[in-house]
Amino acid sequence: MRLKVKPAEITADPSDPKAPYAVPTLTVTAAFHAITAFYSYMQYTRNGQIGFALSQFGSGLLASMGCWCLVFGTEKGRISKRTGADKRTSGWPFRNEESDKKKGKRKL
What we know:
The chain is an all-alpha fold. The protein has three helices and no strands.
C-alpha cells in the first residue's frame, strides 16, 4: 500500500496561512544568494580557487531563480474566465496572433 503525500507548497493565495511570509522570505533569500555570488566571484578572482567559482555559479543560479520568481510569480495573473487567455498581453514587441485570429485580421 502506497501512501500519497502532497508536498507542502507556499502560495500567494490570501487564504494560505504562510502567504504573508512568502514574498519577504523569497526577497531575503534571493538577496543573500546574490551577495554570496558576488563574494564568491571576488574571492575567485583574488585566489583562483575552483571552489569559489562553483559557489559563484550555484549562488548565482539560485539568485536568478529567486529574482525570476519575484518578478513573474508574485503577481496575480489576469486570466479571462470566458476565454482562458491572459489579459495582460499586448501587441508590443511581439504580435498576439491568437487574439488577432479571434478578432479577425485588422490592417493599419
